[in-house]
């Protein structure tokens, strides 16, 4: 309580130090519900609460008069804002209450109070730029634009969009951080990310405003498009690799069959050599028989002339058979050489097809790993 004898001293002290108080202050003396004296700092003033202002008609409750004691309370009024009031009774020499001395201090959230200090520095730390917004429960209070990014349509005093689905309303209603991606903001056509954090009264816990930021998502969108293109290209490459793997497997099977066929041909050429050896043996035997037949025909004289002709033809046939055997052998050797050469080529081709199949499997495994990385990239981009 303040004695009426001390009132002039209190007034002089308030007038001298009003502008020294951080955040500002409004001092007022109320008698019979009307303001009879006031002193406001430059940083804080409620213009309507001037001398002669009737507080009773403005639904401002003066609890100190009712309770007959000094009162400290918080006031939140859409007309005057948020402030803390110290109500101190003024008594005369007889102890009678003759008035009340009020000290009004604006209640400013720490973020709001520091906005002018941190916002210009922080906003330039975003690579693509950013746009900060400070609001109360109805309108935009302050903004901070960056050199790289600006939204001219958003400025102090403009009501934020009355949309229950907006991030500002979500933050106010839920008292929690809210964010969303917007493909196009206004007429700019720029995809952005909007994020809003509720500002709560430190005494009551009620939401009193919001701090929000808008950042362009150009790099994120480009990254997402690149990720989608990468996924599509990888899918096409993977499909081609699968077809190549199937072809490699089929080639490998065909090479194995060809190798088996060549081995059978080599086996047949060996059998031909055996048959040539048999023919040569028969030829030698036939030659001996023809020689013996000629000797016997000579002994028989004229009676054996016909038999001698036959014996001579037998020897000729034997010679012809004998001369054919080297040709068959040479032909068989040529076939064998060609087949062996083909066999080596087939073996090389078989090895190459095996290596190709193995390489294709490795490429397929790599493609699967890249595909997995691309999917993870998509998830990361979608979360940005």
Automatic annotation (TrEMBL):
Keywords attached to this entry: Transducer
SMART domains reported in the protein's UniProt record: MA (SM00283)
Annotated ranges, domain Methyl-accepting transducer: 222-384
Annotated spans, Disordered: 338-357
Domain of life: Bacteria
Protein's GO biological process: signal transduction
Keyword NADP: no
Residue ranges of coiled coil: none
Pfam families xrefs: MCPsignal
Gene Ontology, cellular component aspect: membrane
Protein's name in the database: Sensory transducer protein YfmS
Primary gene name: yfmS_10
